Model the fold of this input.
Amino acid sequence: MSLRIVVCVKYVPDATGDRRFADDNTTDRDSVDGLLSELDEYGVEQALKIAEASGDAEVTVLTVGPDDAKDALRKALSMGADKAVHVNDDDIHGTDVIGTSAILAKAIEKTGFDLVVCGMASTDGTMGVIPALLSERLGVPQVTLLSEVGVEGGTVKGRRDGDAATELLEASLPAVVSVTDQSGEARYPSFKGIMAAKKKPVESLDLDDLGIEADEVGLAGAWTAVDSATARPARTAGTIVKDEGEGGKQLAEFLASQKFI
Amino acid sequence: MLDHRLSPEHEELRRTVAAFAHDVVAPKIGEYYEHNEFPYEIVAEMGRMGLFGLPFPEEYGGMGGDYLALCVVLEELARVDSSVAITLEAAVSLGAMPIHRYGTEEQKRTWLPRLCSGEMLGAFGLTEPEGGSDAGATRTTARYDADTDEWVINGSKCFITNAGTEITGLVTVAALTLSSEENADGSPRREISTIIVPTGTPGFSASKKYSKVGWNASDTRELSFADCRVPAANLLGEAGRGYAQFLRILDEGRIAIAALATGLAQGCVDESLSYAAERRAFGRPIGANQSIQFKIADMEMRAHTSRLAWYHAASRLVAGERFKKEAAIAKLHSSEAAVTNAREATQIHGGYGFMNEYPVARFWRDSKILEIGEGTSEVQRMLIARELGMEPDRP
Ligand SMILES: Cc1cc2nc3c(=O)[nH]c(=O)nc-3n(C[C@H](O)[C@H](O)[C@H](O)COP(=O)(O)OP(=O)(O)OC[C@H]3O[C@@H](n4cnc5c(N)ncnc54)[C@H](O)[C@@H]3O)c2cc1C
Ligand SMILES: Cc1cc2nc3c(=O)[nH]c(=O)nc-3n(C[C@H](O)[C@H](O)[C@H](O)COP(=O)(O)OP(=O)(O)OC[C@H]3O[C@@H](n4cnc5c(N)ncnc54)[C@H](O)[C@@H]3O)c2cc1C
Done:
């Protein structure tokens, strides 16, 4: 029976654009162009590599996001994923990480899985906790932050490079893994891939389909609330210290005044 | 209906290649260029993306796309660098296309899969030391040896792109052959045929690389043929149809060069916009001066009209309509736009624009050849005048 891989991919505002919050203090996802989170491209790449090595695997890409998030799915399909699942519901607006993980978990269960692959963090929320939350909700082991990953038989194996040590880890399937930006550059879609993506199935699901009540998610269901947000002040010009014999001392005073030393 | 927007698939291809050019080509190409080195690593990556197989059918290892897809890619690559763009252009439109268009089933099966994957590059040898514009005056000869059923090629070719890389697999050579028909005086008539010469064939050699003004990360060689023998089956298309064949190939190629020139013209706008915002003089960004703004506005206008011109020519080609005049106009207009934009972009960059480490210096050096290669500007004007029904001005 073929290996079922689900890759969670997030559609995020383009970091090179002018990112803002909307009036209700949620991320403004309408006025900025979005794209498939770069960190999730690594997840897609590793899933495709595992699928290619296995010879008998099916890769499903899953996103929770607004209408435009289908662009992220199309990109992943162009890269070579087999099918896509898009969870989209107006009531999802304002959902926090707890709610997002609940939606993802339900959608993963509905799709069926042996291996869930996530990125190391989204490039907008950057909490990096979804993989752990998914592991808890799905009741399967987690092997996170891998820079190398592979599946052998019923086991997923990987390498985690930490500051102090390199760990070789493995877990029995089904399992959740997350991969880092050191796991290998993501492939560029070929034109054949782009053309083929047009014909691949994209399943759209709403909260009803997943048996989730609207009040479990959304702003109302969130455990945290953002009261206000202030844009980071523009960078100031900086201070130029002219060395007239006292340069060292002045530098030290500056650093001390900024509490660096 | 009049619509110059790309289909969603062509648009996605454009964005993909733009990202590749920005992330992979831009950081590395300066180094290759500086040392006149062929960028094997980048070319291999382009091969993995399927760029070399874009307009060819999937059954031969291609991507099942069209000529428009190729041109979209050339524009985005040239927006960052022309050496990689011309490597792709020459390999696909001059190297592989004649085999796709005129080759036998056997020739296609032998060559196209490797050409499509980018493992192997093809080249097209038309220009000779004695002349390029007057392609009908080819002097290289191919004599048929009935005893061995081979062609025996003698002569030389110059300025041939992709002819001497480590991955060059073949050169398609235009050569004079003897016709079965006779001239009025009874002497045998000579005609031009195209013949596939695989790399490594005894008697065929490529000289060392030229020292060029631009396109320094692209491979250009002089070729010589001394009793070079290839099987009779290497004839491409019908004997004596060589001239008509390469005219068709060159007509198409002009659209590809126009797309490439448009990319260079647009790259000049990109670089100038950011430099004009960054560089300060007299207490404000140089871009605050109307004279700089107007220069950039004119540059954008030239890039834009160049794009419309090649889109129009390409849409006629893809629709199977006559495109000779439109292709010549696009090539002429965009190459002149590229040269002008490169000159203006260098001017906006001041002294830094004259330093090789700045992309605009590369653009400046790479622009001039666009008015020369695949038909000079004079040749384009001749073609346009002829398409308007004017009599050829014969010496
Ligand atoms: C339309 C929409 C509106 C939202 N509004 C709010 C809000 O107002 N307030 C709030 O607190 N949160 C909101 N969220 C949720 C939030 O943006 C994150 O999706 C969630 O908190 C996950 O945290 P993170 O981005 O830090 O993920 P991380 O834990 O950093 O992500 C790790 C990995 O999890 C996967 N992943 C994360 N998010 C998704 C996803 N959406 N789809 C598929 N895979 C995913 C990816 O593989 C990713 O690499 C919203 C989400 C959406 C889609
Ligand atoms: C970097 C580079 C790469 C190239 N790659 C290839 C390749 O892959 N394959 C290939 O076959 N060739 C290639 N070429 C050759 C190129 O196509 C020729 O250089 C071009 O066609 C001009 O030919 P020529 O150099 O012989 O100039 P000439 O034909 O000698 O022309 C000299 C000048 O006279 C003008 N002229 C000629 N005839 C007329 C006329 N009737 N009326 C008015 N003006 C006229 C020309 O416009 C030009 O200005 C390449 C050249 C370069 C520099």
